[in-house]
């Protein structure tokens, strides 16, 4: 089966519009923070010690992403997306970020806690294999000057003798498969500065912090940062910008500036149409999905499946598409606790029953997830797209026949996809452009 990357490479269209004049930069930035907390006060002291002096990265087993992994990843992505989309608000989720953050955390889980996390995150893939798949997949994601994607991971834990003992195997596994650095720190103001500086450095300054303060019960943070920065393959110039109207999910009409173009990959299923707009060199793409008239965005999302999403993307038709994409910008924030419980991992949130014994132990009581907070931001305009996400996991003790037309002038779904697999790195909804 041809990949989207193959379709983009082979695409040859006789477009009537003039060629655009300059490239469009699209930086997409993602941060994941996993926090483990305990029930004592922080004692202020100084900076952070690098613990990787004693933890050397070993050669990790790799599993080349295959149809099993793609099906699992897509199922997780769409199930999480479907669970979080509700009402008339815009949504933006980074499945890759959430999956990596929770998989790193799962490396410290055991018993029923691990079983539930494996079932949700891997959909039948054991955690050891999921680690190997994610190691290979993240290492293999294209990284080019004009389509740049980089991933960094770090683990920070409190320097407090007798409070938390961290298992070396936990650090070793996350070093091997996720290249995670590890730091021991006093969790004072200096630590706060260290963590936020690390985030700024590893997001090219697009996100300058993830913590306003360190929770007095916090004993560990796991942080994942992803930087995505790509140029459009076919860019917009001034003549491609035109004003228009967007009918929001609430029924109001909003003034918007549309970015108009002719694209070469058309999407269609029984409930929607859409298009794919590639980034430079055809390594990544922006996929837009517009539910049919008479089908609400919520109805469409409610019917989505991982298999259906992949079939839609991989079944893209090579034909001329007259496309209009509105400028939009919004932020999104949600606590994922209830969603993750409903999706099948409630034990990890139980102060009595959670088992994170492979992570370590605390003298104060049992470790459990207290909060999984996901924050995202995206801005799309003629100059580019910027997107970022933060997820905090807190653990506590106790040939064309016709021209297709897709005008995104009402609520729609979009995704930033890896063209080699068709898998979403970001996926979101636009219910309003204001």
What does this structure look like?
- With 434 residues, this protein is α+β, with helices and mostly antiparallel strands.
- It folds into two domains: 4-24 and 232-328 and 400-430, Alpha-1-antitrypsin, domain 1; 26-44 and 64-84 and 92-230 and 330-396, 2-Layer Sandwich (Antithrombin, Chain I, domain 2), CATH 3.30.497.10.
- It is 26% helix and 36% strand.
- The chain is built from ten helices and 19 strands.
- It has helices spanning 4-10, 67-84, 95-106, 111-122, 127-140, 168-178, 189-202, 297-303, 306-314, 337-343, and strands at residues 25-37, 49-50, 91-93, 147-158, 164-166, 181-185, 218-231, 241-247, 253-269, 272-278, 284-291, 317-326, 328-335, 360-362, 368-381, 384-396, 404-407, 412-418, 423-430.
- The strands form three sheets. Strands 3, 8, 9, 10, 11, 12, 17, 18 and 19 form a nine-stranded mixed β-sheet that branches.
- β10 (272-278) and β11 form a beta hairpin.
- α3 runs antiparallel to α4 (111-122) and α3 packs across α5 (127-140).
- The longest helix is centred in the N-terminal third of the chain and has 18 residues, at 67-84.
- Residues 12-35 and 38-46 have low confidence and may be disordered.
């Amino acid at each position: 089966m041809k990949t989207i990357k193959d379709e983009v490479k082979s695409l040859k269209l006789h477009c009537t519009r003039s060629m655009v004049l300059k490239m469009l930069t699209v930086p997409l930035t993602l941060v994941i923070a996993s926090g483990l907390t305990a029930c004592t006060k922080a004692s202020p002291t100084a900076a952070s010690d690098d613990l990787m002096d004693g933890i050397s990265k070993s050669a990790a087993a790799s599993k080349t992403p295959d149809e099993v992994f793609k099906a699992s990843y897509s199922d997780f992505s769409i199930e999480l997306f479907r669970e979080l989309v509700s009402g008339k608000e815009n949504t933006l989720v980074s499945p890759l970020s959430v999956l990596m953050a929770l998989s790193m955390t799962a490396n410290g889980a055991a018993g029923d806690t691990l079983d539930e996390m494996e079932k949700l995150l891997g959909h039948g893939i054991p955690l050891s294999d999921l680690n190997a798949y994610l190691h290979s997949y993240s290492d293999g994601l294209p990284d080019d000057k004009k389509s740049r994607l980089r991933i960094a991971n770090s683990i920070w834990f409190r320097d407090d003798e007798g409070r938390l003992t961290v298992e070396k195997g936990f650090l070793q596994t996350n070093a091997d498969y996720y290249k995670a650095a590890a730091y021991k720190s006093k969790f004072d103001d200096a630590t706060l500065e260290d963590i936020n500086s690390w985030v700024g450095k590893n997001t090219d300054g697009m996100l300058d912090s993830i913590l306003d303060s360190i929770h007095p019960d916090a004993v560990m943070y796991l942080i994942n940062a992803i930087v995505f920065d790509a140029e459009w393959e076919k860019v917009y110039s001034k003549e491609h910008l035109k004003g228009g109207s967007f009918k929001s999910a609430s029924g109001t009409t909003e003034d918007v500036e549309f970015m108009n173009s002719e694209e070469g990959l058309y999407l269609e299923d029984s409930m929607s149409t859409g298009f794919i707009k590639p980034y430079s060199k055809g390594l990544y793409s922006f996929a837009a999905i517009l539910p049919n008239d008479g089908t609400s965005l919520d109805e469409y999302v409610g019917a989505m499946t991982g298999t259906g999403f992949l079939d839609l993307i991989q079944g893209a038709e090579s034909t001329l598409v007259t496309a209009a994409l509105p400028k939009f910008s919004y932020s999104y924030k949600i606590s994922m606790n209830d969603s993750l419980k409903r999706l099948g991992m409630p034990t990890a949130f139980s102060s009595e029953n959670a088992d994170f014994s492979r992570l370590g132990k605390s003298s104060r009581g049992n470790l459990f997830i207290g909060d999984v907070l996901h924050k995202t931001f995206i801005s799309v305009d003629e100059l580019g797209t910027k997107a970022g996400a933060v997820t905090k996991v807190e653990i506590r003790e106790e040939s064309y026949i016709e021209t297709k037309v897709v005008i995104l002038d009402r609520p729609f779904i979009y995704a930033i996809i890896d063209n080699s697999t068709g898998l979403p790195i970001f996926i979101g909804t636009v219910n309003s452009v204001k």
